[in-house]
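Can't paste images in this forum, so I'm doing it all in text. The chain is below; anyone willing to post the predicted structure tokens underneath?
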Amino acid sequence: MKDGNFGHSVTNPSHREVLTYIASLVPSESPPSPTVLVLDDEPFVRHAARRFLKGSGYECVEAETVDIAMDVLRKTPVIAAMLDMRLSDGRTGLDVLTSLRALPEFREIPVLIVTGSILSDAEKAAIAKLRGFVFFKPEGFSTIVNFLDHMTGRDQSG
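Text version of the structure:
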């Protein structure tokens, strides 16, 4: 029997049985976006990084000092860290990288040291020894996000 509104009958008149369709909208809970720590003492840089990371499917937690960064890391699981090398309090992203590698849960995450400074040979060697990666400002955020995607297995291009 044809139902003029929907094209098919849901009742078979010869058997007097009703066929019931139940449609439910089950919200698909997608996994939370991976979170990246951004440590920079310049608010504009943190803001720009946050906007670009969020637009690329990452969540972002921010810190302006080493102490705040370490506190955030104790409370928030992250899959990667972007660290400014030279901070206004005299400490460095290398200080955080050193601390991260001492903690089992952060031994293998990608850590990017982002700097506008010239690094000494000793700093370069220390970063390499701790399996950090150096990006020089004004490296584009798209390059950094592409690198993060590759290092965290989110790269879908290949």
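The beta strands are 11-12, 17-18, 35-39, 59-63, 80-84, 111-115, 132-136. The first helix runs from residue 43 to 55.
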